[in-house]
C-alpha cells in the first residue's frame, strides 16, 4: 500500500535529488550533459507550476507523482520512484489508481516519455499506453478509456433482418 501527500517546500530537496537520481542519465543521453545550475533553475521554475505529491510507503518517502486534469484527460506530468523501490509494484499501483479514475470519468490518460527511456516505455506499453505523437525528445502516449456500448444508454437494440 502507498499513500500520497501534497509536497511542501520542505520536500523540494527530496524531489530534486530524486529527479537527479532517476533522470540524470536520460538527460545526458538526450541533451548531452547535466548542468547542475541549469537543472536547479529549471526545477525551481517547474515546481511553482506543478503540484507534486509525495508517494509514501510505510512512512517513507519513496517517490513523487504529479498529474493534471482537464475535461478530456488526466495527464501524468511526472512520476519518479527511488531506485531501491522500483520494480516492487508501487508505480503500477499509482498508475492503476490514476487510470481507474480516468476510466470512471470516461476520459483518457496521457503522458510523455523521453525517447531514450526504454525502461519507462516498456512499462507504459505494459499498462496499455499507445504512442499518439512525438516531439524531438519525447514520445506522447495515451490510454483511452474502455468504453462499452452500455455506456451509451441512448443506443437502442435493433432487429436485424437476416439474409436468406
From TrEMBL:
<dbReference type="InterPro" id="IPR016181">
    <property type="entry name" value="Acyl_CoA_acyltransferase"/>
</dbReference>
<protein>
    <recommendedName>
        <fullName>N-acetyltransferase domain-containing protein</fullName>
    </recommendedName>
</protein>
<feature type="domain" description="N-acetyltransferase">
    <location>
        <begin position="2"/>
        <end position="159"/>
    </location>
</feature>
<dbReference type="Pfam" id="PF13673">
    <property type="entry name" value="Acetyltransf_10"/>
</dbReference>
<dbReference type="GO" id="GO:0016747">
    <property type="term" value="F:acyltransferase activity, transferring groups other than amino-acyl groups"/>
</dbReference>
<dbReference type="InterPro" id="IPR000182">
    <property type="entry name" value="GNAT_dom"/>
</dbReference>
Amino acid at each position: 500500500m502507498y499513500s500520497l501527500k501534497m509536497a511542501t517546500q520542505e520536500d523540494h530537496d527530496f524531489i530534486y535529488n530524486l529527479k537527479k537520481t532517476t533522470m540524470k542519465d536520460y538527460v545526458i543521453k538526450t541533451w548531452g550533459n547535466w548542468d547542475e545550475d541549469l537543472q536547479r533553475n529549471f526545477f525551481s521554475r517547474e515546481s511553482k507550476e506543478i503540484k507534486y505529491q509525495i508517494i509514501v510507503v510505510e512512512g517513507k518517502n519513496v517517490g513523487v507523482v504529479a498529474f493534471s486534469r482537464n475535461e478530456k484527460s488526466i495527464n501524468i506530468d511526472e512520476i519518479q520512484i527511488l531506485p531501491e523501490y522500483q520494480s516492487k509494484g508501487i508505480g503500477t499501483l499509482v498508475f492503476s489508481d490514476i487510470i481507474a479514475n480516468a476510466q470512471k470519468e470516461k476520459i483518457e490518460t496521457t503522458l510523455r516519455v523521453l525517447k531514450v527511456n526504454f525502461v519507462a516505455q516498456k512499462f507504459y506499453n505494459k499498462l496499455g499506453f499507445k504512442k499518439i505523437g512525438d516531439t524531438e525528445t519525447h514520445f506522447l502516449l495515451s490510454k483511452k478509456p474502455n468504453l462499452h456500448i452500455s455506456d451509451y444508454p441512448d443506443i437502442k437494440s435493433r432487429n436485424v433482418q437476416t439474409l436468406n
